[in-house]
Design brief:
The protein folds into 4 domains: 137 residues, Jelly Rolls (Sandwich); 72 residues, 3-Layer(aba) Sandwich (Glutaredoxin); 182 residues, FAD/NAD(P)-binding domain; 115 residues, FAD/NAD(P)-binding domain (3-Layer(bba) Sandwich). Strand 5 and strand 6 form a beta hairpin. It has 13 helices and 30 strands. The protein is α/β, with parallel strands linked by helices. It binds flavin-adenine dinucleotide (FAD). The site of flavin-adenine dinucleotide has 39 residues, from helix 8, helix 11 and helix 13.
Length: 547
């Protein structure tokens, strides 16, 4: 008989629902939902202690009929969850092709119903009730894991740029993680007992106990199984969307929900610029505001629910016309054939050309203000450069933790460039000072930013200030270099020109959101354009003989 791992005092039991996240995470399935799952599943009767799947294996939904399933973190040989009769095993990543983060081990007298993930996706599409209950549960579980740092990655190293890069990747791709710093000897040696950590640099310990030294985000994505959704070379689809910001996600949701086979390719992280916004306050229906990460997560779930395939992080490097549609080239030289393409690649933040600045990126110099950065400015000075709404939001957000926030603007009045409500809040905030007619002139620091200097044109003097962080929010350029050989019409700044129904100069190629010339640069308009463009895509596909 195999040895069954033993739960400890930190083990979570699916039947012990302590708060509303638990209630969502472990729902009581209705008879209708159970019947649907039974109609598509196969019953298994594993031996006690039998390994049902290992960390790193592809996963399916497992409904526990009797007995229970232990979810074991291999890194610490700990039972993290006990899934009891009536509850099901499954995690958000399952629907996105990600691999299992825990081992599954059968308890005594266990019977389970296994529903293959492809079947689950089909059921979720045909049953609104099952879709609601399963997707809410998977989302709640992911939030629980993220909050506890359970089951995901362990990011180990020094508090430097490389570690920040990986934290940012995990944060923006909503992958649970916890950080172990060398400067914390007890946590470091505890981790070192379970795996071989490098003397220097950054390491990622995956759920399979694999140690990756300073991995690229691509390598990490591949190890996690989040980069390729079973897309083979020359795969075909009705619609390929470039970019998973609000515009691209809206196009995916509306396209997939209306029966199109949709592939979305995203270079950095789901959510686009909006995903890096700490609080979006002017999006309809969210009177208390919504964090960009939350909005992105909800939109991603919606897109996946309707069968969208998301490839991330992967970038599109070129596009050409072929009979029946387009050949879209990915950065790994894979091609995807699409009958129609929507360009939703948005814009990218502008950088400042100052000596030493690039070396401090991620180590005190940032282009967005999330909770991670807010923590790093606690009680100290933060400097925001820029006068647009994004700068205003960042300043207000940082002022919750920072000792003081200094906002540098080139013009003499904030209201020229910022929404009035934000400008008012900044002006009246006791821990925010707006410095008009000021330009950043130097950054100082060794391993991290420590001070910076700006020139005050009105008083013709230089001001040097000690600062924990600098946030550059000075505008953005369109992400269209990949379109330069495509023949599509761009304006002088590189934005895509469109006419009726977001059509570009090439039939079958559409552009929506910030990447479009003369766009409004708002979440709501990006979402509106992405969804409206789908009717034009339908009309185009109906009029053409495509793949
Ligand atoms: C910090 C911040 C705060 C903001 N706050 C607000 C707010 O409160 N209210 C509001 O209305 N607006 C706000 N905005 C603006 C809003 O976020 C944008 O208008 C909106 O995100 C535009 O959506 P989009 O989908 O067109 O482009 P983006 O959000 O820019 O998304 C484009 C996506 O395409 C990807 N991409 C680019 N090139 C490629 C390629 N070659 N291959 C694959 N993928 C690619 C990018 O990685 C990106 O994820 C804010 C912006 C920022 C930066």
């Amino acid at each position: 008989m195999r040895i069954i791992p033993v739960p400890d005092e930190l083990t979570h039991y699916s039947s012990r629902r302590l708060d509303e996240v638990d209630e969502l995470a472990w729902p009581v399935l209705s008879q209708h939902a159970l019947d649907l799952l039974r109609s598509s599943g196969e019953e298994l009767h594993p031996a006690p202690g039998e390994l049902l799947w290992d960390a790193g294996d592809p996963t399916d939904l497992h409904l526990v009929l009797t007995g229970g399933v232990l979810l074991v973190d291999r890194r610490a040989d700990r039972v993290v969850f006990v899934i009891e009769a009536g509850d099901f095993v499954g995690e958000l990543g399952m629907l996105m092709g990600q691999r299992a983060v825990f081992q599954g081990v059968a308890m005594e007298q266990t019977a389970i119903l296994r529903v293959r993930v492809e079947e689950l996706r089909r059921l979720v599409e045909i049953s609104g009730e099952l879709s609601d209950v399963v997707l809410s549960a998977l989302d709640a579980r992911r939030r629980f894991l993220s909050r506890k740092g359970e089951g995901g990655l362990v990011l180990a190293g020094d508090d430097d740029r490389d570690l920040h890069r990986l934290q940012d990747f995990a944060e923006r791709n909503q992958i649970p993680y916890r950080t172990v710093l060398r400067s914390n000897p007890s946590a470091w040696s505890e981790l070192a007992q379970t795996c071989a950590l490098p003397e220097t640099g950054t390491a990622v310990v995956t759920a399979q106990r694999r140690v990756m030294t300073s991995p690229t985000t691509r390598d990490l994505a591949t190890a996690l199984g989040i980069d390729l959704w079973g897309i083979a070379d020359d795969a075909r689809c009705d619609l390929l969307v470039v970019g998973a910001g609000p515009a691209g996600l809206a196009a995916a949701v509306y396209g997939a929900s209306e029966g199109l086979d949709v592939v979305v390719v995203e270079d950095v992280a789901i959510g686009g610029q909006a995903g890096s916004s700490s609080r979006i306050e002017n999006y309809l229906g969210f009177y208390r505001g919504v964090s960009g990460v939350e909005l992105a997560r909800a939109a991603m779930l919606q897109a996946v629910k309707f069968g969208t395939r998301l490839l991330s992080p992967r970038s599109v490097t070129g596009l050409s016309q072929v009979p029946g549609g387009f050949r879209v080239r990915l950065d790994d030289e894979h091609d995807v054939l699409a009958s129609a393409v929507i360009i939703a690649s948005g814009v990218r933040y502008r950088r400042l050309d100052l000596p030493g600045l690039a070396d401090l990126e991620g180590r005190g110099v940032y282009y967005a203000a999330s909770q991670l950065e807010a923590n790093s400015v606690s009680g100290r000075n933060a400097v925001v450069v820029g006068g647009a709404n994004s700068a205003g939001q960042a300043a207000l957000f940082l002022a919750r933790t920072a000792g003081h926030v200094h906002v540098l603007i080139r013009r003499d009045d904030l209201r020229d460039t910022m929404s009035n409500y934000l400008a008012q809040r900044l002006t009246h905030h006791e821990r925010i000072t707006v410095h008009p007619c000021c330009e950043l002139s130097a950054v100082h620091g060794g391993s991290r930013l420590s001070e910076l200097t700006w020139h005050d044109r009105a008083r013709d003097r230089d001001v040097r200030l000690d600062a924990a962080a600098l946030f550059l929010m000075i505008g953005a350029d369109p992400c269209t270099p990949w379109l330069h050989d495509s023949g599509v019409d761009l304006d002088a700044k590189g934005f895509v020109r469109t006419h009726d129904s977001f059509a570009t100069s090439i039939p079958g190629l559409f552009a929506v959101g910030d990447v479009r010339a003369d766009s409004v640069k708002r979440v709501a308009s990006a979402v509106g354009e992405g969804s409206v463009a789908i009717s034009a895509v339908h009309a185009y596909l109906a009029s053409k003989r495509t793949f």
